[in-house]
Amino acid sequence: MDATDTNAAQEIVAEAEKALEDIQKVKEEVSKVIYGQENVVESVLLAVLSGGHALLVGVPGLAKTKLVTTLGTVLGLAGNRIQFTPDLMPSDILGSEVLEESETGRRSFRFIKGPVFAQLLMADEINRASPRTQSALLQSMQEYSVTIAGEHYDLPRPFHVLATQNPLEQEGTYPLPEAQLDRFLLQVNVGYPDAASERRILLETTGAAEETASPVVTSERLMEIQSLIRKMPVSESVLEAILALVRAARPGEGFEETDRNVAWGPGPRAGQALMLTARARALYQGRLAPSVDDVRALAAPVLQHRMALTFAARAEGITVTDVIATIAARDLN
Question: Residue 169's pLDDT is what?
Answer without folding.
Answer: 57
